[in-house]
Amino acid sequence: MKVIDLVGRTGPLVSFEFFPPKTSEGDASLVRTIEALRPLRPSFVSVTRTGGKPREATIELVARIAGLGIPGAAHITAIEASRADIAAALDLIGQRGIDNMVLLRGDMPKDPDFRRPSDGFRYAADLVSFVRGRAPKLCLLGACHPEGHPETRNLPLEVEHLRAKVDAGVDVVITNMFYVNAHYFAFVDRIRRAGIHVPVIAGLMPITNVRQIARMAELCGAEFPSPLGERLEALRDDPAAALAVGVEWTTRQCAELLRAGIPGIHFYTLNQSPATRAIFENLRGEGLLAGR
pLDDT by residue (tens digit) across 206-216? Predict the structure, then answer.
């Protein structure tokens, strides 16, 4: 099932992101997480690449999850890939019957000697164009940055980068993580005024580990609100209470977004289920996810 065909069909989408674990213990933990979240009936799941895992690991995990009856989307990054690499990934995606791909430039490697392949891709839009040309029936998802890309922090430029991806063939976009809804609403207003009308799914990362999440927010350029930071800092020695504060914050974020009629919410789960499940149950209790 294509994500674009799910938008608006039965209310807002709710989706989860996972990554291929590095160890057999991590794999077993992820299976438990997926089983815990499966009753929530996610609209789709996406699987990213981390820890040097090959593209095949991402694709095979998406196929495994699809075997549970959940539509999946495989993340493919451009920064280190040749055209032959992407063509091989597309062949495997076709063999596994996957309908969706999330296409990203990817983070620049820290290795100072890194060089892109001579026939590689400079920007995500270049990757989108290549994939769209070879696989016209796939649903292509892209990323967007409501607070500006961390490498530029340039809001008007972010609109033009998104335009390039949409013109190249992106069907749906998912935002980077954010903790202040005003940034999402302002971003959507900017791109709509610029004539860009693709669905914008809100990407949210529930707070499970305070220091880890704050660091990730800093790296991706997301504002971490002072009131939230102060409440969490006061609970640094009480993980359960800190988790409850994080769940409360993200629940309120989701409620405001859903009441505004956004097309969907994408949870960056970090391969864990408790916070996401708690937020989901809170929203269902408020009648915002009726029928799930």
Answer: 887 777 777 78
